[in-house]
Amino acid sequence: MSETFPRLLFALAASKPREVALLEKHYGIWQELTWGEYAARVRDFAHGLSTLGVERDDVVGILGDNRPEWLVSELAAQSLGAAVVGVYPTSIGEELVHILARARVRVVVAEDQEQVDKLLRLEDRLPALERIVYSDPRGLQDYQDPRLRAFTEVEMHGRAQAKARPGWLDERIAGGRPSDPAVVCATSGTTDSPKLAILSHANLLTMAAHLHHIDPFRPGARYVSFLPLAWVGEQMLAVACGLAHGITVFFPEDSDTQRSDLREVGPDVMFSPPPIWEQMLSSVQSRIGNAGWFKRRILGWAYGVGETMAACRARGQKPAAGLWAAHAMADLIALRHVRDQLGLLRIRRCYTGGAPLSPDVFHFFHAIGVKLKQVYGQTEICGLAVCHRDDDVRDHTVGAPIPETEVRLAEDGEILLRSASVFGGYLHDPEATAKVVDPDGWLHTGDSGYFEGHHLVVIDRSSDVLRIPDGSPFSSSFIENKIKVSPYVEEAVAFHGAGGITAIVCLEPGTTGAWAEQARIGYTTYSDLATKSEIGELLAEEIARANLDLPPAVAVRRFVLLHKPLDPDDDEITRTRKVRRSVIASRYRDILAALDRGDESVAIKTTVRYQDGSEVERSIVLPIHTPLAPEQLTGRRRRPVWSAA
Fold it and tell me: Where does the AMP-dependent synthetase/ligase domain lie (predicted)?
């Protein structure tokens, strides 16, 4: 691999300068940026960064939502031989300090006033921070801090610098090495504070080449970038694959328009973690649950046909002519309309990764005609090492290794990975690096798994693997995913205690609130809704259904509906919505103890923070529920996976 991101960009600008590279929706209108314009902005901003003192081997911070300015900043820094570290736009306080201080960042590109204010409030804790460049000037006109610079101002100075030093930047780009650090990505931090993984141009572009080998990307393929660019998955698709294969990247207007923008664009490629696919299913469940009986009957028939067709393909069988005809009719009158509502009508390549996806959710997308594939990897191997193939998809596996990637199991079942995409180490932390990459280049993932033929099955983090009475390994994530198939559940965390398997469950407020309104159950707040006896009864049936798909030894015995959603600002989940199990276990130990004892309820104290900054401590009594017994489900119709009714 001899290329770098900047060299790929300028090659694309030279070969197709007028073709569209990036589009951003602004005030309802898609604003285009061609490859030629993209490269020109990178050139200007790179010269501008050099006037701010950015040099080779520096790390430039980027803080904000996905915008063209993010990619311009990233490619400009890399053109100078520097790397970038992205920070999730929702990060606050300690998270910002942890990343920016550890990376020794001197220059941060921040999106707007909100992000600038966060940095200015941390002035005493970020003494190395010399410059803050903001791309959205609204609200910042009267700020007098000497460290502030407008993005357009930096570009203007860059243009002047380019005239004074013709050819200077071209030499820097030509001198860039594929082994140079390109991106510093924070790990998920589910078990510890996030570490900063160094990913080189070669690491990322090798991964992109290997993915292209099994799933070729056509030039100009559409990709909607709505997941944070600080996440390795977005760097993997939007940046590495985008530059390697000339993909067109769309940026939605804001979080409120993501769903409608996705439908308007109709992407060819999509990669998202399980929560996004679960939310899509929930939106279908809610919509169909509120539809009339005729529409439900039609979709039920069409879904059944789609499910049969998907199962036939998964077994490698040729569908009978009757099934082909029925499926064509089902797709015409129902299934394609579901895909259209989700923005997946034109999808050609779609992946899920970052955490396990429930087989029920996986089956749903295949039944409606979306060929969703699971991938497995970690930040330390550029997010991808194992992937399903088009003609070899199994719901409970993550597929087979991608080309030039080795996978083996340690004696204790730990998954080990080795390829050219294995990272260059953790930034300024050689001891942590030595713990995960051995002298032979094997990446120790910390995950347990096993092979089923040539397919890899991931069980869970080794520290979270359960053992059922016969000694077989079992995943708490599998239990949680079975519970989360319910449209009324947003998050679930399962624990193994003296009283068997128990769970802390968070409601999905939209669908649960709609159910409560239809049932004429009044409520005021999320906490009030979670403590309603009728809601407890509803979830008791939902979790009983989940238990039917679990071995009796790991069926959920008791559960509690938490009074609040899990919040990344409280360190309960990561910014990519992975549960921090140790934090949950510590923070809610009184709840877990009550669940283990078999108590009927548990009293907890919680702090309510109001918008004016005031706080009030309240005491809440949470009922403890028991799922229905299997015999209690007799005569109760099972809710279809596609409906909340």
Answer: 13-427
